[in-house]
Automatic annotation (TrEMBL):
This is Major facilitator superfamily domain-containing protein. It comes from the Eukaryota. It is a multi-pass membrane protein. The keyword Glycoprotein does not apply. GO terms for molecular function: transmembrane transporter activity. InterPro entries: MFS, MFS_trans_sf. It comes from Naematelia encephala. The chain crosses the membrane at residues 120-138, 177-194, 206-226, 277-297, 317-335, 342-362, 368-389, 396-418, 424-449. It is found in: Membrane. Pfam families: MFS_1 (PF07690). GO terms for cellular component: membrane. Keywords: Membrane, Transmembrane, Transmembrane helix, Transport.
């Protein structure tokens, strides 16, 4: 054998040794993290860690929601009159937002998978803030359409990005807790100032200027502070390992590694998995009422006889507070009884269904009764971060979910027709029917998860695996970036 051939073989052997060494190192790292998740840290340490991320996530969620729904508040403060909107033009301001959101969703998710999540969010939030500021200078329907279209494009990474960050910091049982009311108080202050100074800046313009400026400031904070545990600079090495270890129990894959490689088997599994289609169907039926109520909610309140300021004090603020209370109660219930998440969601839909139906069917009722019925329509759920594993499968499923989200919201805004103003009775009845359809779909979805969990339990029992074995093997598989469809030890949260 000549020297060249011997050198080539030696090189190949060295490469194989390097690959095996790398794989062994990864396996050791995975095992260490999984074992750490099973008792190396105390609850007090975990609680101190979470306080470092809780506040900024709540503020980001609140400001994002305030920016997105500010169009409804601005409509009651003269936006439609000052920009000369007629007919369905106001509805189209909401629809075009979700259409551009839809078009930009897939490339947005690719950006989140390839780059630092916090940095990407910061850049998109900065652009978002600039656009919200510019709304204050809109003169007509064309200006507003362009700005709302750009707003939808900038928004496309914000909700998915916050979802990724939530899933990387919080355990399954903590996911349902959310944010509400601050923006409504701010808008009330702006509206009151405009009312007391009628010759000054219009209230709807003040709302845009304030929210846009706030978003720009927040985007700088997000750029340097927010991210997954692997990305943020303000954790020491022990805290970073602790943050990763506490979410290993989710069995959806922690933030140990970036997993930049796009896995085609996970892409195919996303479309083979029935839960993907449940996600799509439930999200569309849920977001159609949401799209209408988000855009027309304050206008519905004015139909009860409330003034523009009243819609904030007696409408938006109480509704936000009820929403916060609802999520806190749901979060506490889920922490105490982990297998009640679907039941809590189903119970949340019942008052929304009753409230919408009564508003649509009962013609003459006291204003306070209508107010109470509309307050009952607060509902929500969050399941994606808990029941989908595998980086690529999560990304694909998130894209499908947000396509459904955009589709539902875009259609929902068109349910409210100008000819049905001010009460929009056909739209309210349609929303009630959609809540009913969503309820049935959620029941079927829950039983599908129960069936899959039972099926996997039987297979595990046949192999003689204990619950501890299943939990440990499930965490190992998840840390190796195995998706929920292939991970036989994964159990769906119900």
């Amino acid at each position: 054998m000549d020297a060249a051939e011997e050198e080539r073989k030696t090189g190949e052997e060295d490469k194989q040794i390097a690959v095996v060494s790398l794989e062994n190192r990864a396996e050791v790292e995975i095992t260490d993290i999984v074992e750490a998740s099973e008792g190396a840290y105390t609850k007090a340490e975990f609680d101190r860690l979470l306080w470092k991320i809780d506040l900024i996530l709540w503020i980001c969620g609140g400001v994002q929601q305030a920016d997105k729904t500010s169009i409804s508040t601005q409509a009651t403060f003269g936006l439609r009159t000052d920009t000369h909107l007629v007919g369905q033009q106001y509805s189209w301001l909401s629809t075009v937002f979700y259409l551009t959101y839809l078009v930009c969703e897939f490339p947005g998710n690719i950006i989140l998978q390839r780059f630092n999540v916090g940095r990407a969010l910061g850049c998109f939030m900065f652009a978002w803030g600039i656009i919200v500021l510019c709304v204050a200078f809109a003169k007509n329907f064309a200006d507003l359409m362009v700005l709302r279209a750009l707003q939808g494009a900038a928004e496309c990474t914000i909700s998915p990005g916050l979802l990724i960050i939530t899933g990387s910091w919080y355990t399954k049982r903590e996911h349902p807790v959310s944010f509400g009311a601050i923006a409504a108080l701010i808008n009330y202050g702006v509206g009151t100032h405009a009312k007391n100074h009628p010759g000054g800046l219009a209230a709807w313009k003040g709302i845009s200027l304030f929210l846009g400026s706030l978003t720009i400031v927040l985007s700088v904070v997000v750029f340097f502070v927010l991210g997954t545990p692997r990305e943020v600079p303000w954790l020491n090495e022990r805290e970073r390992k602790m943050a990763i270890a506490r979410t290993v129990a989710n069995q959806t894959g922690s933030d140990r590694a970036k997993h930049e490689k796009f896995k085609w088997n996970q892409f195919r599994n996303a479309f083979k998995d029935p839960q993907t289609y449940f996600f799509f169907f439930i999200t569309v039926t849920c977001q159609m009422p949401n799209g209408g109520v988000t855009t027309f909610g304050n206008l519905v309140y004015t139909s009860f006889g409330f003034s523009a300021l009243d819609t904030l004090v007696k409408g938006t603020i109480p509704q936000s507070l009820v929403s916060v209370a609802h999520f806190i109660v749901v979060g506490l219930v889920c922490l105490r009884w982990p297998k009640t998440r679907f039941i809590c969601t189903l119970l949340s839909i019942i008052p929304a269904f009753v409230g919408m139906l009564c508003l649509g069917l009962i013609k003459t009722t006291p204003r306070i009764f209508k107010w109470g019925l509309f307050l009952m329509t607060v509902t929500g759920n969050i399941l994606l971060a808990s029941n989908v594993a595998g980086r690529t499968k999560k990304s694909v499923t998130a894209t499908i979910l947000f396509v459904a989200y955009c589709t539902g919201n875009a259609i929902g805004a068109q349910l409210f027709q100008a000819k049905d103003a001010p009460r929009y009775i056909p739209a309210l009845i349609a929303c009630a029917c959609l809540f009913g359809v969503e309820f049935v779909g959620l029941v079927l979805w829950r039983y599908y998860y129960i069936f899959k969990n039972a099926q996997r339990d039987r297979r595990a029992a046949a192999l003689g695996l204990t619950e501890t074995d299943i939990e440990h093997l499930g965490r190992l598989a998840a840390e190796a970036d195995t998706d929920d469809y292939e991970n036989e030890h994964f159990r769906y949260s119900i």
